[in-house]
């Protein structure tokens, strides 16, 4: 009981920051698994183990699913699976921090396009300048395939934001997540299973993939959702803009990927653009949840009443 209260009593920004660092750590730790079973195989294993763990912890409210909910749930699951697959394929070819910054162009562009202020479109353009500094194409050694995978992951992330907001209006807490991650596992099976079967499936790969899945999506996404119950969309979105910097930090710490001075400036521009794009980004209407409140990793629901704000879209690469 005391553990549950201590988690709920944490400042929401600490849970959000912990979630972002956990997501980037899980991406970095995925690199050795990618070397064994490929990016698609790694993504598929993460989705499979994540689905099992989430069903064990969150107990999805299947009976509350209406026929009208099914298209959004299926679409969100497919986008989640391919967002992870594309991102890990990018990380296999370009530095982690660069991949996160390029991927961040997706949700940033969606935020600019959906904004009522046309001036908001300047922030994706500013972030593009930052990405150019990160990739340094003038050196002639840019990995276009890796950049393409990161852009594809960003497109999925932007779509994921829209779909998660829609699904979040219907399913509170981890309910929607526990329904969509199994779909993500099925969607990535055609790409992931052949890489796993044809790869070097040594004894440590499955335990490593299970451990990474416990970090992301289970713990990290759970912390995000708990944070969002006590944060506005604007506050969380502003905090989320720091994620490219976290990607660089984890890449340096875990993968020894040292950025250059121009690349550090590029990251700073992307972070600033992301933070500026969140101004006035709150929602006017508040949705009504129809399912159970969020479930903590301990398996208990929080004691305080649920906030009617929906689940916020995720980052990075599961």
Overview of the structural elements:
This protein has 318 residues and is mainly alpha-helical. It contains eleven helices and no strands. It has helices at residues 2-8, 12-58, 70-91, 96-114, 122-135, 144-168, 175-198, 205-228, 233-240, 243-255, 261-277.
What's the short story on this structure?
With 318 residues, this protein is mainly α. The chain has 11 helices and no strands.
Structural class: mainly alpha
Mean pLDDT: 82
Rounded to the nearest angstrom, the distance between the terminal CA atoms is 30 Å
How large is the count of helical segments? 11
Give me the oligomer status.
Answer: single chain
Helix content: 55-70%
* Rg result: 18 Å
Q: Which regions have little confidence, pLDDT < 50, spanning 5+ residues?
A: 281-318
Describe this protein with a few key phrases:
69% helix; 318 residues; mainly alpha; 11 helices
Question: What is the fold's blueprint, element by element?
Answer:
Layout: H1 2-8, H2 12-58, H3 70-91, H4 96-114, H5 122-135, H6 144-168, H7 175-198, H8 205-228, H9 233-240, H10 243-255, H11 261-277
């Amino acid at each position: 009981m005391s553990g549950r209260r201590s988690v709920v009593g944490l400042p929401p920004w600490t849970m959000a920051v912990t979630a972002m660092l956990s997501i980037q750590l899980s991406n970095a730790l995925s690199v050795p698994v990618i070397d064994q079973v490929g990016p698609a195989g790694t993504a598929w294993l993460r989705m499979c183990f994540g689905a099992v763990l989430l069903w064990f912890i969150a107990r999805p409210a299947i009976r509350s699913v209406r026929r009208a909910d099914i298209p959004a749930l299926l679409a969100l699951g497919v986008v989640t699976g391919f967002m992870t697959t594309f991102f890990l394929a990018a990380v296999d070819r370009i530095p982690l921090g660069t991949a996160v910054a390029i991927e961040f162009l997706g949700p940033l562009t969606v935020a600019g396009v959906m904004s009522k202020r046309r001036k908001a479109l300047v922030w994706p353009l500013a972030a593009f300048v930052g990405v150019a500094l990160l990739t340094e194409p003038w050196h002639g050694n840019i990995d276009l395939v890796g950049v393409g995978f990161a852009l594809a992951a960003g497109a999925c992330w932007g779509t994921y934001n829209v779909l998660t907001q829609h699904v979040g209006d219907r399913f509170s807490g981890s309910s929607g997540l526990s329904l969509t991650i199994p779909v993500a596992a099925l969607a990535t099976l055609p790409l992931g299973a052949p890489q796993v079967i044809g790869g070097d499936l040594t004894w440590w790969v499955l335990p490593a993939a299970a451990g990474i899945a416990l970090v992301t999506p289970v713990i990290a996404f759970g912390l995000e959702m708990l944070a969002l119950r006590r944060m506005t969309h604007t506050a969380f979105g502003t905090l989320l803009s720091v994620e490219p910097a976290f990607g660089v930090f984890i890449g340096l710490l875990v993968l020894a990927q040292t950025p250059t001075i121009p690349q550090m400036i590029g990251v700073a521009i992307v972070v600033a653009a992301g933070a500026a794009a969140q101004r006035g980004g709150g929602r006017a209407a508040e949705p009504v949840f129809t399912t159970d409140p969020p479930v903590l990793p301990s398996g208990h629901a929080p004691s305080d009443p649920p906030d009617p704000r929906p689940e916020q879209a995720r980052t990075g690469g599961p």
